[in-house]
Each structure stands twice: as structure tokens, then as C-alpha cells.
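Hi Q.,

Before the meeting this afternoon, I wanted you to have the adenosine-5'-diphosphate prediction in hand. No need to reply - just skim if you have a minute. The sequence and ligand are here:
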Amino acid sequence: MTTTLLEFADVHKRYGKHHALRGLTLSVPAGTVGLLGPNGAGKSTLMKVLLGLLPFEGTAAVLEHDVRAEPTQIRARVGYMPERDCHLLGMSAVELCSYAAELSGLPPSEAMQRAHMVLEFVGLGDKRYQRIDGYSTGQKQRVKLAQALVHDPKLLLLDEPTNGLDPAGRDEMLALVSSLPSRTGCSIVLSSHLLHDVEKVCERAILMHEGKIVYSGTIEALRKDGQKDVYELRVKDGEERMQKALEGRGLRVEREGLMLVVHVKDARPTELLFQVAAAEGLQVRHLSPRRLTLENAFVRVVNEANEAKAS
Ligand code: ADP
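Predicted structure with the ligand bound:
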């Protein structure tokens, strides 16, 4: 069984003088991965490298197949949903999907069968013979997902899959995408500037900034790491008193409704908080390390990268 999804060693990409990817070295296990970063960070360039569409320096492998030496194996195993439209004028959904399946190596009859199946799955069954040019934005996004899925790939590369969708359409698209790993066992790399999309679909994240990887790991760890020494605390009927008691011990405390956010640098922080509550005769209802939103964690990682560059 393949367990390594992506593997790069010292990958560089230069567009003339512009150094767009600056020495990426990384190994990512199978699963759901968000590729996040501000505009210009290098996400699309990295996707194109993985798809074998751009020359680059260094080595890169997708599903343990070398990007340069094994393009056919990669095409058979990877589905790609590009950011922009990818159909030819006048084509119907069923034509596009069966064509995409044949390009990935399926024989024509199987390609056609898969095209019908996958269009049903994305909810375009009754529109499959209509020209894609006449589709709404939401339907165009669905047909792009369908053509990426048609050959039952082991890895789906999705570039901004919710672009142009309204909130309801976005939720539907994310629900479709999130259902795929358990249905088909595929892995997903989702490139997006929308943290919300990544959080809905992915367990891991790769954060890119100015052509470098500034974080790779689980989203959970990224959010936890973000706020060391900060705890969320709720007590039964006495948050005012608890806040005063903590501040009396020199701790910084912020209020979020009934929740106290306590900054505590101590070898045994939770014991200390329990002790203060006990001394006040208060019952602790909730105590946990503060988790950052993905957005805050992202800002923190990028700030740290900027500070490291400046020093
Ligand atoms: P992202 O997808 O994160 O927005 P890109 O990979 O598109 O970033 O771009 C990374 C950097 O490389 C940007 O500064 C962009 O201007 C530059 N770049 C991208 N494509 C080209 C190209 N074909 N020629 C020259 N520069 C490019």
C-alpha cells in the first residue's frame, strides 16, 4: 500500500530571475492536505510541478512515482481540478468526462461508463448531455470535479474548488469533496486561500510563504502549538471572583462571555488553576489549553517567518 503522498527534495523553480520555489524539502503521508498561502506564495507553481507541467530543479515524487520519469503512472493515479474552466466550447459534461477518463488511460467503453457514474455522483445526472458553456458557475465547478474523479484517482489535486460559489454552493461542494476519502479511499491536496475550505476538508496543512514551506503537519497541532501557556477556564457561578483571584496572583486574564482566558506560565499550570479555584470555593466546569483559529495560527507562522528573515 502506498503511504507517501508527496515527497520533494530541494525543489527550486525560477521564472527567469524570479525565484518562485526556494528549496522545498518535504514528505507528506496519504490523507487530506490543505495547501495554504497568500497570493504569490507559490501554491500554483508547486501544483504544476507535482503534475509534471513545469521544469524544475531538485526531485519530486507523487504517490512514490517520480514526477519527471513516470508521468504516465502519475496521470493514471492523479485527478486534477484546475482553478479555471477546462472544457472545450460546445462540449457536454459526458463528453468532457469520458474524454478525461480516456486521457488517463481508460478504454473508451469503461471511460463512458465511469463518466455517467461520476456525473450522477456530483448531481449533474439530468444535465449530462447539455453543453457546459450554458452551465451555471456551480454546475461548472461540479463538472470540473467530475472530470477529475472520473478515473477513480488515488490522489485528487483541487485548485480553489469553491471559487465563484455562493455560501450554499460552497458548502455543497465542500461536503462532496469531504465525502470522497471515505467513499473511494483517495487522498486530497486542496490548494486554497480560504482557511475555512481547508478546515472543512483537511487534516493536515502545508503553509507556504514567499516560495518556502513555513509549516507542514496536522491542523490540530498547528492550532495547539499556537498558544502556549494560555488556558480556557470556566467555573460555576463565579467568573468575576475567579478572575480577581487570578489577577491577584499576577496572571493576565481576558473574558469571553463566561469563559476566562488565562495566561499562565507555570510548571504545572492546570494544578495552579485548580488550586486557585479551590481556594475560592469554586467548581471548575471546563479547563483546556487554548486553541487558535486556523487563521490566527496562520498569521503567527507567517509573522515568525518574517521575523526570522529580518534577523
Ligand atoms: P500562488 O498560487 O500561491 O498565488 P504562484 O505559484 O502563482 O503563487 O506564483 C508564485 C510567484 O511566481 C509569484 O510571484 C508569481 O508572480 C510568479 N509567477 C508565477 N507564474 C509565473 C510565470 N509564468 N512567469 C513569471 N513569474 C511567475
